[in-house]
Hints:
- There is one protein chain.
- This protein is mainly beta.
- The chain has one domain (2-62).
- The chain has one helix spanning 24-31; strands at residues 2-7, 13-14, 17-18, 21-22, 35-46, 52-62.
- The strands form two sheets. Strands 4-1-6-5 form a four-stranded mixed sheet.
- It is elongated and about 45 Å long.
- The relative contact order is 0.34.
Amino acid sequence: MVMSTFAADGPTQCSGLPVVRYDEASLQRELGDHFDLVEHERESHQTPFGTKQEFFNALLRRRDW
């Protein structure tokens, strides 16, 4: 599974709504034992308004039970 979230140092809101931000450790905690983190990267996205938003992208593999 590929997942993209706001990074731990990313924005605290999006369109006026609060967001949850993640890094490698916090995403692993959130997903528990259900997924292995295969690969991850950070991405800096420039918005149309000229500001930057930090994203955390992850490639995850579901564990077989």
